[in-house]
Amino acid sequence: MKKFVLLSLISFLVLAFGATVYGQEKAPVLDFKASGFVDASATTYRNVAGSGGALYGPPAAADLPALDRSNAWVNERARLKFDAIMGKELSGTIFFEMDSTRWGDLGAGRNTMGAVAADQVALEIKNVYLDFGVPVIPVPITVRAGVQTMGVRAPMLLLTDMAGVTVGIKPVDPLTLSLMWGKLWEGLDANADDTDLYGLHAAFKVETMTVGGYGLYYNMNTYPIPAAAAAYGVNAPYSASIWWLGAYVDGKLGPINLNFDFIYDTGTVEDHQDVVTHAKDVDYSGWATAVKVAFPWEKFEFGGKFLYASGNDLKKTSATGLPGSATPWGTITDKVGGYVVPPASEAFGAFGEDVVFYGTWMDRGGFGNGVSKSYTQVHRGAFGGTWFAKLFAKIAMTPDFKVTAQGIYIGDTTKNGNTIGSAVESSGELRDDSYIGIEADLITEYKIYKNLKWDVGFGWLFAGDGLDYNIAGNNESAKDPWRLVTQIIYSF
User: Fold this and answer.
1) Which sign, positive or negative, has the C-alpha torsion 107, 110, 115, 120?
2) Residue 306: is its pLDDT beyond 90?
3) How confident is the model at residue 272, as a pLDDT?
4) pTM value?
5) Which pLDDT tens digit goes with each residue over 431-487?
6) Could you tell me if 291 and 256 are in contact, meaning their C-beta atoms sit under 8 angstroms apart?
7) Which pLDDT does position 64 carry in this prediction?
8) Would you list the domain boundaries of the chain?
9) Contact 333, 326 (CB under 8 A)
């Protein structure tokens, strides 16, 4: 009996330690990684305005006194990302951002680390999320939960940070599905005033091409989204339901690199509190399409891009697009036919098609006559209400030095008025111009070290009538806008 007990105990210990050893061999090891960048960007320019949030219209009033005068500033950004990785199945990410909107920032707080004497409370939490694989289920499924960057066709449509959940599913090898849910506004616990994003994105790989499609639905029981917490019991006067439906193709077609996008937005904004008595609902229905073709050949790359985005009819649309609001023609808004992007989308930051009009990646976008942004309402983004045709040529002078030359014709698609300009006829009615201008750019990219890059861009926009402004009752044709911008960035 004693031998049996002893043998049983030995067997138990062998099994226990064997399991422990096995567990140690299979247990994932924590891999802690840090990455990020530090950059500085300087620009000098004339008649390039900061972005506004209207569906159309001239630069913000604060920019108008600077017309025909040269200006200059320097800004800076740093990002620091920490990833705690436990094998392929689990990781957590904490992502910080620090900004100086301008060296010599005024005020205190976020985006002001360039203020004199520094010591600003300017450390921002950009992302905090966890990633994990779903066990047991035979189909590969990954989940990301937390404050994260959500994007769909970022240069064209959606790029923003928000709290939510994304799920990636790969039912069969060529097909990938992504489900999205994001919370833009929680509102009050006692009221159904939430604002949510729901999305489905599918991509299918066909040899060298990727074919994709998606649908985004924004259910905005509160609209516009408040910039600050509302008082308890106070509901927003408007609500909105808007869809974005799109399809795209990316890849290599023979010797040519091809990119194609088509996006359609549709929905309604309602005055559910009857702020304006019996105000009509405003219907949204806009679209945009783009095609880019590039031909790489040895050290060269030649190509072109065409983009068209629908514009508004200013006899039907106000600058806010809200029910009951008046248009420049004195009528009441009932339709927004111009292409719009979702609230808080910073897709303009990834657009970077030129140096002057649409903004450039060399200072992270967001600065250009054509750029619009709003964190509370839908907006034109980088190109709503415009179209362009661009030709470009790029040459790699050395493995570390590249030069790009490009020309771009920019037109206006707004009716009964202009997307950017505000000039009027002698009768006082808005002037309708179709020509914004022709821009010529020269861009150089130089890799000083493996992780240190220096970019310089210069652009000149030969302005058309679509950039004339009405100031104090007089039409003003500003001098041609130009811009010189440079960025140095250390990535690690």
Assistant:
1) positive
2) yes
3) 78
4) 0.90
5) 999 999 999 999 999 999 999 999 999 999 999 999 998 888 888 888 999 999 999
6) no
7) 63
8) 32-491
9) yes
Calculate the alpha carbon distances from 64 to 56, 164, 257, 430, 469 in Å. Answer: 16, 39, 41, 19, 9
pLDDT digits (tens, 9 = 90+) for 222-267: 999 987 766 666 667 899 999 999 999 999 999 999 999 999 999 9
Q: What is the C-alpha to C-alpha distance for residues 312 and 413, in angstroms, rounded to an integer?
A: 8
Cα–Cα distance, 243 to 220 (Å, whole number): 11
Fold observed for domain 32-491: Porin (2.40.160)
Question: Looking at per-residue confidence, does 183 or 67 come out higher?
Answer: 183
* Cα-to-chain-centroid distance, residue 42: 22
Q: What is the 3-state secondary structure (H, E, C) of the chain?
A: CHHHHHHHHHHHHHHHHHHHHHHHHHCCCEEEEEEEEEEEEEEEEECCCECECCCCCCCCHHHHHHCCCEEEEEEEEEEEEEEEEECCCEEEEEEEEEEECCCCCCCCCCCECCCCCCCCCCEEEEEEEEEEECCCCCCCEEEEEEEEEEEECCCCCEEEEEEEEEEEEEEECCEEEEEEEEEEECCCCCCCCCEEEEEEEEEEEECCEEEEEEEEEEEEEEECCCCCCCCCCCCCCEEEEEEEEEEEEEEEECCEEEEEEEEEEEEEEEECCCCCCCCCCEEEEEEEEEEEEEEEECCEEEEEEEEEECCCECCCCCCCCCCCCECCCCCECCEECCCCECCCCCCHHHHCCCCCCCCCHHHCCCECCCCECCCCCCECCCCCCEEEEEEEEEEEEECCEEEEEEEEEEEECCECCCCCCCCECCCCCECCCCEEEEEEEEEEEEEEECCEEEEEEEEEEEECHHHCEEECCEEECCCCCEEEEEEEEEEC
Angle at the Cα of 299 from the Cα atoms of 298 and 302, rounded to 5 degrees: 90
Which residue from 120, 71, 65, 40 is spatially nearest to 488, judged by alpha carbons?
Answer: 40
CB atoms closer than 10 angstroms to residue 159: 24
Q: What is the pLDDT of residue 288?
A: 98
The 10 Å CB-count burial string (b at 16+, else e) for 247-286 is bbbbbeeeeebbbebbbbbebebbbeeeeeeebeebebeb
Task: Work out the pLDDT band at 190, boundaries 50, 70, 90.
Answer: confident
Do residues 164 and 348 make contact, with C-beta atoms less than 8 angstroms apart? no
Instruction: Please provide residue 24's backbone torsions phi and psi, each rounded to the nearest 5 degrees.
Output: -65, -40
